[in-house]
Structures are given as structure tokens and as C-alpha cells.
Amino acid sequence: MGAPRREGDGAARLHGRGAVAGRARGAVVIVAGPGGTLVSVEVDAAVAGALREMRRAAWRIERREARHTLGLDAMGPSAASTGPESDPGFALMKHCQADELVAVPSRLPKVQLRRLLMHTVVRLPVREIARREGCSERAVKYSLARARRRMRALLTDGDRRSLKPVRPLPERA
Questions:
Q1: What values do phi and psi take at 22, rounded to 5?
Q2: Among 146, 107, 114, residue whose Cα is nearest residue 130
Q3: SS3 per residue for the chain
Q4: Residue 140 reports pLDDT greater than 90
Q5: pTM of the full predicted structure?
Q6: Which end of the chain is more exposed for a tag (fewer CB within 10 A), N or C?
Q7: What are the residue boundaries of the RNA polymerase sigma factor 70 region 4 type domain, all occurrences included (predicted)?
């Protein structure tokens, strides 16, 4: 591998469309130095091939991200809304004011309610709840799932959307 023709620190990057040019012994790579100065470096053919592949991979990533990126203009007026309706907790607070969501947990069994509160309000992990309750982690997870399922059944159809799980729980007979 040859040395750069100009001085520069190690912060060089590939530059331009024809950044790698082939030669009989290897290839010449044009890199941009720290001040934007272009520097030619002679490298082996294997290194030049690896640089071409890296550049192609970076180009593909940029194209993929550009395809899958939406601006606020493309999303419509609801995406840029800053009113209280756009807040995810707005519907939940609306139900809390009606006392319906507050009354539902009181209809849960005491063990399920206690474990659900420790997990959601106090933010204790399942392992810690199991240690404090003196039971297995599996029992805590089962109890939490049953509590969520029972709350879903007790709430009206309008409230169910706010409690939709990430993945559906299997129904038990």
C-alpha cells in the first residue's frame, strides 16, 4: 500500500463517483482529507474491491432509508397536530375523568390487582414481584395476563382500543 501524496489525518473518506480507479498493480483511491482536500492513495486490488463494496452498501442504505422516510407534509394534517387530541394519553384521561376506568380494577381479584399495580404503577419487574410474593415468575406472568384479560372484558368496546395488547393473548376455556 502506498502513502498519501498529501498530508492529512486519519479522518479521510471516499469521495466522488470515480473514487476508485483501477491500475495494473492495484488501484488509486481518492479520499477527502480534513479540510476537504482531495488525496490520491494507491492501494491493493483487494482493498479497492472492499472499498467499492462498502461504498455500494452505503449507497443502498441511503436509498432504502430515503424510500421509507415520510415527511410531515406526506403524513397529512393530523401528524402535525399539537392539540390535546393528538396526545396518546388523552383518551385514557378522558376515561379516567368518567371514573369508569378507575372502577374496573376494583373488580379484579386482590392478588391480580396487587401484582398488576406493582408491575404497572411501581414498575417492578416480574422477577422482583415473584420474589416479594414468594411465587414463581410464571405465576406472576399468568396473573398479569389474567388481570389484563379481565379488565379488557369489563371495559366497554370504546375503551378496548386503549388496552389492545402488542400480541394477542390466547384465550383459555
A1: -80, 150
A2: 114
A3: CCCCCCCCCCCCEECCCCCEEECCCCEEEEEECCCCCEEEEEECHHHHHHHHHHHHHHHHHHHHHHHCCCCHHHHCCCCCCCCHHHCCCHHHHHHHHCCHHHHCHHHCCHHHHHHHHHHHCCCCCHHHHHHHHCCCHHHHHHHHHHHHHHHHHHCCHHHHHHHCCCCCCCCCC
A4: yes
A5: 0.38
A6: C
A7: 106-151
Residues 125 and 148: their CA atoms lie apart, in Å, by 16
Average pLDDT value for residue range 75-104: 63
- The answer to whether 112 and 106 are in contact (CB under 8 A) is no
pLDDT digits (tens, 9 = 90+) for 97-130: 666 666 778 888 999 989 998 898 888 999 999 9
Amino acid identity at 96: C
